[in-house]
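Inputs:
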Amino acid sequence: MSMDEKTIRKVARLANIEIADHDVERIGHELSGILNWVEQLGEVETENIEPLANVVNIELPLRKDEVTDGNCAEKVLANAPEETQGFFVVPKVVEQEG
Amino acid sequence: MAKLIQGETGEWEMVIGMEVHAQVIAKSKLFSGASAQFGAEPNTQVSLVDAAMPGMLPVLNEYVVEQAIKTGLGLNSKINNTSVFERKNYFYPDLPQGYQISQFEFPIVGEGTIEIDLPDGTTKEIGITRLHLEQDAGKSVHDQHPTKSFVDLNRSGCALMEIVSEPDIRGPEEAAAYLSKLRMILRYLGTCDGNMEEGSMRADVNISVRKPGEKLGIRAEIKNVNSVKAVQQAIDFEVARQIEILEDGGEVVQETRLWDPAKQETRPMRSKEEAHDYRYFPDPDLLPLHVSNDQIESIKTTLPELPDEKKHRFMNEYGLSLYDSSVLIAEQRRADYYETVANDNDSKLAANWVINELLGILNKNETPLADSPVSAAQLAGLIGLISDNTISGKIAKDVFAEMYASGKDAAVIVEEKGLKQVTDTGAIEAVIDEVIAENPDNVTAYKGGKDKLFGFFVGQVMKKMQGKANPAAVNEILKKKLG
């Protein structure tokens, strides 16, 4: 499978990554290589086989509903480029998505 | 009660489905041990998991899983033994992970159904498509600075249940009834507080219109509809908008729109085209969730009597109408109050007093039932006095007003004020004779055919007896005397 320019630009936008125009072709070539490599998995016959979530036989670990964490606003905000009164401060965004 | 809208080209039917986000009642978050309580100082209830620091791993809260199962059972839904958490990818400043952990292909709860009560006294079944668990996002504050937004991650990672209905809803009243019933069920179950003002329950409404019998139209999704009233208003606006577009020969665009309560309109969100390209995939940090049938059965035994069960029991056991029953079951506390009053009393009389008198005055004073100055046992006492003819229904209303003001028992007030009903026919007869003697003209007129004057005589007798005469006895004796 090879990726055309339009797909490359769309994937970049979805990933919030900026790609310079002169890099598009090179990246497209690299990504196509990766996809082709992964695509070899398609040769394996998987009809009627349940997806395997994990190779070891363990169950999803669960925790009790107890408050054991938090109260570390300083740590949480330590890497924030900007903060005020305990809030992260970011360029204005108006709309809600999701 | 499928409401049809008359347009210029004929009648239109609206097709509505709802997605409700309900915050799960739990002490801690879905995947971290930070507190899920509302209202703390910004970013104080955030663990490094919620802040999406590299290397942090989510660990599922077992109580939240139980709450979701409980809710699924309350919605008469199928509980899935296996469900899978997936990543829903999008960028927003209040979503530090860059994805929301949600469930997509395999939700924890599958199809079910709830019964809604409509204003015209009928009921309708609304299908539930699914319920899945997901993380809430943080909160952005936009009005503190001209060019910046402030982000608080306290809500980030709190557990939400997204409850999706089938597109079975056909009008604003049905949408309101659906939302009210859903909220009632969640409150009975104790799985969500249903508080729409604080945002612990939020609704998105999917709306399309079609000519009756035709295939489904293109829908718009309306967000930011945060009260039962707003849901109705948003539907009214959006339906009118879509019909106008279609009747002018245009096409409805499939899009997400925001409800603006100030302007009373919906408007498109300026979203980018890829806003809905979420690229779901199973979260590699989380294994599939398995719940056993034993676990489901044991949760089933903890369910309270649900609103609809209670409603039907009230109709059967107490002989109440659908309307009265649905009013009484609206809150668990109200239903309990009614049952205390109805115990040992005429159940229909009890329903009338609770609904018309008690709830009437509480609503007028905006007092919650929990703070009612008249307890259920006290109201039961008052109704007992009516039933055994100690006081008349009319006097009872005055006694009730006094009980509400003073908190005293009905029997005490009746005693203190000497309000005991006079059933002594001799005493009543004496007063009636007086009234007849004082109003010879009216007696003649009555006998001459002016039947309406009967009420006048009753009124005069009651007035002389300060309303304490037994009304049935007064009527009987008066009829005899006026012959």
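Residues 233 and 389 of chain B are 49 Å apart (CA to CA). Flag for discussion at group meeting.
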